[in-house]
Amino acid sequence: MNRAVIFDIDGTLIDSVDLHAECWVEALREFDVEVTAERMHHEIGKGGDQLLPLFLSPERLAREGEAIAAFRADLFKRSYLPHVKAFAAVPELFARLRASGRRIALASSGKADEIKVYARIAGISELVDVAISADDAARSKPAPDIFRATLTALAPIPAEACLAIGDTPWDVIAAKGAGLGCVGVLSGGFGEAELRAAGAVAIYRDPADLLARIAASPLFAE
Hints:
Elements: E1 4-7, E2 14-15, H1 17-30, H2 37-41, H3 48-51, H4 58-80, E3 85-86, H5 90-99, E4 103-107, H6 112-122, E5 130-132, H7 145-154, E6 162-166, H8 169-177, E7 181-185, H9 192-198, E8 202-204, H10 207-212
Parallel strand pairs: 1-4, 1-6, 4-5, 6-7, 7-8
Antiparallel strand pairs: 2-3
């Protein structure tokens, strides 16, 4: 039986994917790197350690990678974070899971301070047992490190008694790498075909859809 549920945040619990894509495009443009929003959108869900090497040469990454990442983080807090909103029914979904006795974890490629803000925006700060960020792992998604760190924090619950929830193929790939099944949601903008190709075990429109059908979902499978 499933005993714990591990949630991605961006695009899964909060409507922030487009904002992150726009912010990365703006930040890279500041450093004379041109990337389209459409191209960037496909990479959201990865941390900066996985994303920046796609757009910078190794030499430039070593020289300016940290500065670009820091500029983007500050830009997001100043100009984009005020526009982030939670998807509907997130607190209700978490309350339903807590009432069933399941533990709840957050596992994000974002930083720890960002996760705290997002949890507050989503109204779930008091409903989370474990929160793991890119600060707790050597590599961000699609590497499995963040999910592995989450499983360590959830011990002694084994991976086979946990399920991940995410909106990107990178979530699904990272979860599989940690021995987890992953349920996909379409709220981040990735298509059902992409999520299923990555290995998602089920697909829901968004958190509200998952809540409405939770009794028959993999989360409640015996």
